[in-house]
Amino acid sequence: LDGSGSVDFLDFFMFADAFGGDGRAKLFALAEEMIGLPRAVSLAQNYPNPFNSATTIDYALRSASGVLLQVYDLNGQQVRRLVDHYHDGGRYQISWDGLDEAGNPLSSGVYFMRLQALNRVETRKMMLMK
């Protein structure tokens, strides 16, 4: 490693500050470092919120997992399935156009996005305003 470049994910690192006369490294630090990814799964608040024609949803996974991202109305009925895929760990983004599964525009109101991944569930409230 020459020390240049970037890293999206790093579990841990260690470094040697000095080498002994026998050529062995003397370990001076051992640390765990997370760079921008959650411990398991994270669902950010959509933006804009409230929204009119479309909104953006960001989520992140610590490691590979099946991902299910759904939108529910206030009655608890699923109105749209946005994601149902297997993803590698990383950051993801999707846009929702305020339409139901059949492509019909939904009415103004409160909706909930629900993300299931890595045996976790995250939920956020969204407001659609026409």
Task: Record the SSE blueprint.
Layout: E1 12-19, E2 25-32, E3 41-43, E4 55-61, E5 65-72, E6 78-87, E7 90-96, E8 109-117, E9 120-128
In words, what does this structure look like?
The chain is an all-beta fold and 130 residues long. The protein has a domain at 41-128: Immunoglobulin-like, CATH 2.60.40. The protein has strands spanning 12-19, 25-32, 41-43, 55-61, 65-72, 78-87, 90-96, 109-117, 120-128.
Strand order of the largest sheet: 6-5-8-9
What is the arithmetic mean of pLDDT? 82
Helix content, binned percent: under 10%
Structural class: mainly beta
Short description:
By secondary structure, the protein is mainly β.
Characteristic key phrases:
mainly beta; Immunoglobulin-like; 4-stranded antiparallel beta sheet; 3-stranded antiparallel beta sheet; elongated
